[in-house]
């Protein structure tokens, strides 16, 4: 670590360190003045939640259609939206025939992602597709090819948590060497809850609690751990080498098929790095926990907060007064000598994801969470589940690489070509 450069790039005397405010400000300025008309496909918890987030983007996006086949969600949509302005559909294909719709949000069960995304792209719509991008490796590979063949349509994948400015900051820390040589990632997302939604009619059990059934869902790896897996691929510009998982239905013997307790070990051979990703439905103490451990320090992340813990020698360097810059000593948090990485409340990650979605559509460039990064994560999740349920170690195959992990290494042939105004 270059102590002088660290000092110059730090906001000394405050608890938010390491970078200037330029990156934070870049999130406030996006795109042009065009308003894009949005259709939401799937109006469950996630779809209706994104509908509410879009209220903050009334001058960028306008929801003009909502699609869901279930009666009670149709009723929910009628109460949430002005049906004089928002048309309701039960079949996504009918919504896609609406030429006035510019883009769609797909917030449906995982097993439907591929078909609906394929239909949407081929209908000329921009797409924000919830994670995971696809259910199987073949679907991920095929969807990447479809996106390549439709370069004017934006395809963003909904790994919204890493869209927070905090996660851009940590990615920059990793790239600039503040953590030193990273060898271990410990990621968890725990809860003490059965994950079950209320069902108004027993016939709707699998449609509402689809996360619990193998034909519809990738379970905990897809719904929770994919976010942290995705960040590692993106931040380190890396891919797995081997994936090993285990798990079981260890608490809730209620007819579910997906496991309520899982652990996945991933080896990143080229990076000399191991990732440990786990989730349980039986204890909430750790909740969301994400630790990235390097030879110079560790970052410990929550969804909207983070601390940097320097190793002893690194801390000694950072505490010295720089006579050239006139900087004073660093200010430490009260959490065992960690440096807090944010000093102001952050918005939900979906807010920042919508900013990038608007930018990508307006500038005709790849979103930061795109078919390459999202596809790699979807394949990683599929292989993790193959190992969890089938046993054995899964190896990453060359054809899984989708030609790229980082979009800057494989720009799609788009016109006009513009540079992102999101700082990396």
TrEMBL record:
Region feature Disordered, mapped onto this chain: 405-424
Pfam families tied to this protein: GFO_IDH_MocA, GFO_IDH_MocA_C3
Domain GFO/IDH/MocA-like oxidoreductase: 168-299
InterPro entries in UniProt: Gfo/Idh/MocA-like_OxRdtase_N, Gfo/Idh/MocA_oxidrdct_glycsds, GFO_IDH_MocA-like_dom, NAD(P)-bd_dom_sf
Residue ranges of every copy of the Gfo/Idh/MocA-like oxidoreductase N-terminal domain listed in the record: 37-158
Alphabetical list of SUPFAM superfamilies matching this protein: Glyceraldehyde-3-phosphate dehydrogenase-like, C-terminal domain, NAD(P)-binding Rossmann-fold domains
Sample GO molecular function, one term: nucleotide binding
Highest taxon in the source lineage: Bacteria
Regions of compositional bias (Basic and acidic residues) in chain numbering: 409-424
PANTHER family recorded: BCDNA.GH03377 (PTHR43818), NADH-DEPENDENT DEHYDROGENASE-RELATED (PTHR43818:SF12)
Protein name, per record: Gfo/Idh/MocA family oxidoreductase
Organism of origin: Sinomicrobium weinanense
């Amino acid at each position: 670590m270059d102590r002088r450069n660290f000092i110059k790039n730090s906001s000394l005397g405050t608890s938010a360190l390491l970078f200037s405010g330029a990156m934070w400000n870049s999130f406030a300025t996006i795109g042009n003045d065009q308003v894009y008309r949005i259709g939401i496909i799937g109006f469950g918890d996630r779809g209706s939640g994104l509908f509410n987030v879009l209220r903050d983007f009334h001058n960028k996006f306008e929801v003009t259609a909502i699609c869901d086949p279930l009666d009670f969600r149709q009723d929910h949509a009628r109460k949430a939206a002005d049906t004089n302005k928002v048309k309701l559909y039960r079949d996504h294909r009918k919504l896609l025939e609406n030429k006035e719709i510019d883009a769609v949000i797909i917030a449906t069960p995982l097993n439907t992602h591929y078909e609906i995304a394929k239909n949407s792209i081929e209908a000329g719509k921009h797409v924000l597709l919830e994670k995971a991008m696809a259910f199987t490796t073949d679907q991920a590979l095929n969807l990447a090819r479809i996106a390549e063949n439709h370069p004017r349509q934006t395809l963003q994948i909904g790994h919204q948590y890493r869209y927070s400015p905090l996660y851009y900051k940590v990615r920059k820390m990793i790239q600039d060497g503040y953590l030193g040589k990273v060898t271990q990632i410990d990621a968890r997302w725990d809860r003490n809850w059965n994950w079950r939604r209320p069902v108004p009619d027993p016939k709707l059990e699998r449609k509402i609690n689809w996360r619990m059934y193998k034909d519809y869902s990738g379970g905990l790896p897809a719904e929770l751990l994919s976010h942290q897996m995705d960040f590692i691929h993106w931040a380190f510009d890396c891919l797995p080498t081997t994936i090993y998982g285990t798990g079981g239905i260890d608490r809730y013997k209620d007819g579910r098929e997906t496991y309520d307790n899982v652990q996945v070990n991933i080896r990143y051979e080229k990076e000399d790095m191991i990732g440990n990703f786990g989730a349980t439905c039986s204890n909430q103490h750790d909740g969301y926990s994400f630790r990235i451990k390097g030879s110079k320090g560790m970052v410990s992340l929550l969804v909207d907060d983070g601390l940097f813990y320097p190793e002893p020698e690194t801390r000694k360097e950072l505490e010295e007064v720089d006579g050239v810059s006139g900087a004073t000593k660093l200010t430490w948090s009260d959490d065992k000598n960690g440096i807090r990485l944010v000093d102001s409340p952050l918005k939900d990650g979906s807010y920042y994801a919508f900013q990038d979605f608007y930018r990508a559509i307006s500038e005709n460039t790849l979103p930061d969470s795109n078919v390459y990064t999202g596809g790699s994560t979807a394949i990683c999740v599929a292989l993790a589940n193959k190992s969890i349920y089938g046993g054995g170690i899964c190896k990453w195959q060359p054809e899984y690489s989708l030609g790229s992990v980082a979009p800057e290494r494989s720009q799609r042939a788009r016109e006009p070509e513009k540079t992102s105004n999101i700082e990396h």
